[in-house]
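Batch manifest, entry 17 of 40.
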Amino acid sequence: MNRRPAFWSFASGAAAVVVAVGLVALTMPAASASGRATGRPGSLFDDFNYASSTDPAIGRHGWEVRTAAGGPGVEGATWSRDNISFPRVDGQKSLQLQMTTDGTAAGTTESEFTQTSNTAREGTYLARIKFSDAPASGPDGDFLNETFFAIGPLASDCDPKYSETDFSEYLPNGGWGVTNHLNSETTWYTPGESCSDSVENDQDVSLNGWHTIMATISDGHVRYYVDGQLVADHSGKYYPREDMAVDFNMWLIDLTGHSGHDTSVWHEAVDYVYYAQDQVLTQNRALHKIRSLQQHHVHFLNTTVG
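Output type: structure tokens
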């Protein structure tokens, strides 16, 4: 499948074999395998208790709402601040990402909500996400990408230190030549027109509704889970080599799937996100830590260090 990384505008394609391994529960030493002496494991937690996309607390908490032009997605589309909101979704205060299109580049708006600091690498990542198989309004059929990932800086084309782990790229209508719904996990070595190199697993499955997306990065393996089930295990040269930022975005792959001229509005919602730095947790253990924070009315916490 010819596809692109969740942030950078380069082409790629690769495949991987799913390896069935058991869940583990351990805490890595203070000096992690990445060589970063963190002193103690830190955590990032946010349940997105913000008033709007202009809430000053977003910046104070290290997040940024993207408005800058560029890839991925349709050339000429707009990354709109108005596409980020914080409504109650099924009773839960949530981050809501929106993508809209009328079938033209000028009539397409996308969304991205990202941490601005690169402090994430090894450890456990988890988010509770509501994916959409159909638009909230307008015609169905668009080839869009609903995502959760971690990404590092790209120093140059074909940067050998570049790191990106796509925990979930959900295509409700397919894309890049695929016509069925598809969920993908991709680990990147480097992007570039002449050097794109990544490893990918795909599942032909509907993820409509709420799901728990989790990954653990440790001991040379990036293991990806959907609702507690291992779906991919990537290793070797694809293992992250630099610190990354946690990111969510929603964008249109191309214009070919749109029907008519009416505008379609798509939503992806995130109840919460959690990252345990240098700690490999089972899903149950991670959810226990999240429930403890919620019971103590903690809406945001970030003790991670780079």
